[in-house]
From TrEMBL:
Coiled-coil segments: none
Keyword Transferase found: yes
Record-given protein name: Small RNA 2'-O-methyltransferase
Limits of the Methyltransferase type domain: 295-395
Similarity section: Belongs to the methyltransferase superfamily. HEN1 family.
């Protein structure tokens, strides 16, 4: 089975920089032993204009059989007669995780700006099992910003009347962050195949949340992806959807309401989702401060922007995110090309880093950091504060962030609420940081709870409204 990753050159970036991103030198062919075979990494082409890395997995059928646990889903003849040596599947996903683990984490100390940025990529899988056909492959990858080519493979070219097999030849093209591309393929390979070569254990939830960080929670097929990835194991699916819901600030049933429950859904009182309450609280704070122009820093997929834009009291609404993919998804969700003229004139979306001085951030009444600071490495927080409070210097800054004290109220949660969180603050820690910012940059701050204010552990989200 084969995966090829092709990068073309960009402004000031030769295509051979793919070697830096993958941590695999283009001049070397490397082998990596796996429990089920051998993974080979080599470069069929490597020039400044175009560079291709290939991951070829040779499956050892005997080694694969020995690596299976007693609970393996395969049995009988299926253990010996299958497509595993030839078709991309969870075996290839496992090899990707072993061979490209550093790249999938987005780490490249020598070229950090390269790893954090987007590059023109083409990923190809010649033979991919796809239960649901080419249309299902497009439904999974197109919402992520890919241009998708999914061509069915005929059962036998000599007998076209037999029709197509369940396999497709998949090619993805787009300008994306390499780590995001690898993680998306890693998760969606077993989803397309709807099978795994090993028993699905509880630690698969952690793998899914980690690899799906930044894109899965906002995917329109997230419930189906989760079910297929976790082998329809109800308990694991509910746990994963709960953690995805927390990442989005939504109740679990907002992500996946069982079909049997939908007819009577109106009969049950629903709690207002935490994410909705955050949006309401931030909007209310902006209105109280009479902000007319708003800069949403770390806008993600544009939820706050879409909330503010229809309100004509906001004469200028701008969304900024470090992720090119997030900005592209925000454009699609907002249907930018079909917005009413007056709304389109008030909207701006662009990519930008919050820890670097940028004159485009200046000239706004208010800036918003909604669930953003906890995604920034703590040593870089002074740089963020300098950019927002010192350089952009709006009259109002609204900051929301999780209250880690409230985490004890989330059943089954261990550690932080999201795998991309670098930290989560107590109420005292948030106030200490806010006080230092105010002293340095000449702001005052008031604190407001978001969500139910628990008398023992406080609200799930804490909000600070900074005014100059």
């Amino acid at each position: 089975m084969l995966l090829t990753i092709t990068m073309t050159s960009g402004p000031g970036v030769p295509a051979t920089d793919l070697g830096f991103l993958l941590h695999k030198h283009p001049d070397r062919a490397q082998e990596f032993e796996q429990a089920f075979g051998t993974a080979h990494v080599f470069y069929p082409e490597a020039s400044a204009e175009r560079c291709t890395a290939a991951l070829l997995l040779e499956v050892d059928p005997i080694g694969l059989q020995r690596s299976r646990g007693k609970n393996s889903p395969d049995f009988s003849l299926g253990q010996y007669v299958n497509d595993r040596p030839y078709a991309a599947s969870s075996l290839l996903a496992s090899a990707m995780n072993a061979v490209f683990r550093t790249a999938m984490r987005g780490r490249c100390p020598a070229r950090r700006e390269l790893a954090d940025g987007t590059v023109p990529l083409e990923l190809s899988l010649p033979t991919l099992p796809c239960k649901g056909g080419p249309e299902f492959a497009r439904r999974l990858f197109e919402p992520l910003g890919w241009e998708v080519s999914a061509e069915p493979v005929q059962l036998d070219e000599r007998f076209p009347e037999w029709g197509d097999s369940r396999y497709v030849t998949l090619t993805l093209r787009g300008t994306v962050r390499l780590a995001d591309a690898l993680n998306q393929v890693y998760v969606l390979l077993p989803v397309l195949d709807q099978s795994k070569h090993y028993w699905v254990a509880p630690d698969e939830v952690d793998k899914l949340i980690r690899a799906g960080s930044g894109w899965l929670a906002g995917h329109p097929e997230r419930a189906g992806i989760t079910r297929r990835y976790l082998g329809n194991r109800r308990g694991l699916v509910r746990a994963a959807l709960g953690r995805l819901a927390d990442a989005e600030g939504l109740p679990e049933d907002a992500l996946d309401l069982p079909e049997a429950d939908r007819d009577g859904a109106e009969e049950h009182e629903r709690k207002v989702p935490l994410n909705e309450r955050r949006l309401e609280a931030v909007t209310a704070a902006l209105k109280r401060e009479e902000a007319r122009s708003v800069l949403d820093l770390g806008c993600g997929q544009g939820k706050l922007v879409s909330r503010l834009l229809p309100d004509s009291s906001f004469t200028r609404v701008t969304g900024v995110d470090v992720s090119h993919t997030a900005v592209a998804i925000a454009r699609r969700r907002l249907k930018v090309d079909r917005l009413p003229r007056l709304q389109a004139e008030r909207l701006e979306l662009f990519q930008g880093a919050l820890t670097y001085l940028d004159d485009r951030f200046r000239g706004y009444d208010a800036a918003v950091l909604m669930e953003v600071v906890e995604h920034v490495d703590q040593p870089r927080l002074p740089a963020l504060a300098r950019v927002v409070f010192g350089h952009a210097r709006p009259r109002t800054v609204v900051v929301t962030t999780p209250n880690v004290e409230h985490n004890v109220r989330y059943e089954g949660l261990t550690g932080l609420r999201h795998p991309d969180h670098r930290f989560e603050w107590t109420r005292a820690q948030f106030r200490e940081w806010a006080g230092e910012v105010c002293d340095r940059y000449g702001y005052a701050v008031r604190y407001e709870p978001v969500g139910d204010d628990d008398p023992e552990v406080g609200p799930p989200t804490q909000m600070g409204v900074f005014t100059r």
